């Protein structure tokens, strides 16, 4: 299963904290981050995939 998450209101000061918090939250649910990109100057899009660790699923 793939999940897309949009993080808004990102600034230079809080970008790392907001992104890390979301990655940790999603890892608890069994998702692993696959890619991330910034959208404009204040948004980031994170793509997560859920599957077995170490598998190609």
Polypeptide structure, described:
The protein has 57 residues and is of the alpha+beta class. Helix content is 25%, strand content 42%. A 3-stranded antiparallel β-sheet has the order 1-3-2, covered by helices on one side. A hairpin with a 3-residue loop joins β2 and β3 (43-50). The radius of gyration is 12 Å and the shape is elongated. The protein starts with a strand and ends in a 7-residue tail after the last strand.
Compact summary:
The chain has 57 residues and is α+β, with helices and mostly antiparallel strands. Helices cover 25% and strands 42% of the residues.
* Fraction of residues in H or I helices: 10-25%
Strand content: 35-45%
Low-confidence stretches: none
Question: Roughly how many Å is the radius of gyration?
Answer: 12 Å
- Overall shape: elongated
H/E element sequence = EHEE
Strand order of the largest sheet: 1-3-2
Ends apart, CA distance between termini: 9 Å
- Note the main sheet: 3 strands, antiparallel
Mean pLDDT: 91
How many H/I helical runs?
1
Q: Compute the number of strand runs.
A: 3
Structural class: alpha+beta
Comma- or semicolon-separated keywords:
three-stranded antiparallel beta sheet; 1 helix; 3 strands; alpha+beta; 57 residues
